[in-house]
Amino acid sequence: MYIVMEIQTNADGSVGTLVSTYAEQNQAESKYHQVLTYAAISNLPVHSCALLSEEGFELRHECYKHEPAPEPEAAE
Question: Does this model's pTM top 0.85?
Fold first, then answer.
């Protein structure tokens, strides 16, 4: 069994997770990469994904951090 855990951190610091399970590793890896496709362009400050074994061992993980655009400086 393989677990794909999507982790979404909002601007207010709250965290949400979406968890999917798969019997086959190739199915789990497909979902893992699908999540990262969205995470790469997400508006969330932090959007990550982990692929775990049923024993909880981390097989893969990746994290995207999206910093807010800096405020333009006021003209004097």
Answer: no
Which pair of tokens denotes residue 5? 């855990």
Domain ranges in the chain are 2-65
Calpha distance 67→15 (Å, rounded):
17
Q: DSSP string spanning 32-55? A: HHHHHHHHTT-SSSEEEEEEEETT
Closest by CA to 32, choosing from 57, 9, 59, 50, is 50
8-56 tens-digit pLDDT = 999 999 999 999 999 999 999 999 999 999 999 999 999 999 999 999 9
